[in-house]
Amino acid sequence: MPCNLCGSSRKTKKIDFKQHALVRCVDCGFYFLDPVPTHEELVKLYSDGYYSSSDSNQLGYSNYKEDVDLIVLTAIQRYRLITSKIKPKEGLKLLDIGCAYGYYLDLARLYGWDVRGVELNPEAVREGKDILKLDIKHGRIQDHHFEDESFDLITCWDLIEHLQDPKGFLQANNRILKTGGSLVLSTPDISSWPSRIMGRRWMGYKTIEHVHFFSRDTLAEYFKRTGFELKECYFLGKYISINLFIDRFQYYFGPLSFMTGALRKILPSYFYLNPFDILYARAEKITHC
């Protein structure tokens, strides 16, 4: 499998993950799984059970709907990041790709955005449409025809690392985003200190759920090659429950699990955590690709 970023077939193996290996492109330094999982494998991953996983350290979420309050708090924080640069006004169009149950879209709609969503999980699509009355399309962005330059803002939270073809995805976003419009995303940073320290146990790997692994430099290069210019890039976090924190703590620091009782006593039931390994990036469309 050639490198999705530069097309080179020269690569070196870094970590073995059973049927797949983490490899690094010799020519551009981009990291990805080899072989890349098939579309059928990925569809199976994101079907029933993805948003209520029994082992969220390796796949999906423990209980996405149960954490709705924390997800909304995170959405508010990220919405404020965006609107510090893009002032919302009536009629602006937002597309959220990988929108899950639509909680972020529902928030943006309250602020006056004209919102649309795309989501691969059929259950999430049904609930977003039936309960929140949102316009959410099932499938991938390439499964639907949106008009050229029809959106002012596209968001994709924790999505691009899951995709078989990040370059094709960004090219599709370029077509439907207005010139001067913004693409905002978040993704794990493989060059971060947590990644280097934790090695194969780093949460950013997550077996075959994550396929491509970005750094600031490779993300900037992707944008450059697909008609975007990177405007902002820094680490961000999210609101998490004490239960999730304890679960992650035990996964990373098993020998120190005796500390979890004390941690439960001193930490609040939920809090904002920035692990300094998740990138927030905002890029503007500067040309057609």
Highlighted features:
289 residues; 9 helices; seven-stranded mixed β-sheet; alpha/beta
Describe this structure in words.
The chain has 289 residues and is an alpha/beta fold. It is built from nine helices and 13 strands. A seven-stranded mixed sheet has the order 6-5-4-7-8-13-10, sandwiched between helices. The longest helix has 16 residues, at 68-83. It is globular, with a radius of gyration of 19 Å. It starts with 10 loop residues before the first strand and ends with a strand. The model has no long low-confidence stretch (mean pLDDT 92).
Architecture blueprint of SSEs:
Elements: E1 11-17, E2 20-25, E3 31-34, H1 39-45, H2 68-83, E4 93-97, H3 103-110, E5 114-119, H4 122-130, E6 136-138, E7 151-157, H5 166-176, E8 177-188, H6 193-198, E9 212-213, H7 216-225, E10 228-235, E11 238-241, H8 242-252, H9 260-266, E12 270-273, E13 278-285
Parallel strand pairs: 4-5, 4-7, 5-6, 7-8
Antiparallel strand pairs: 1-2, 2-3, 3-9, 8-13, 10-13, 11-12
- Tell me the number of strands: 13
Order of helices and strands: EEEHHEHEHEEHEHEHEEHHEE
Helicity range of the residues? 25-40%
Oligomer: single chain
Task: Write a compact overview of the structure shown.
The protein is an alpha/beta fold and 289 residues long.
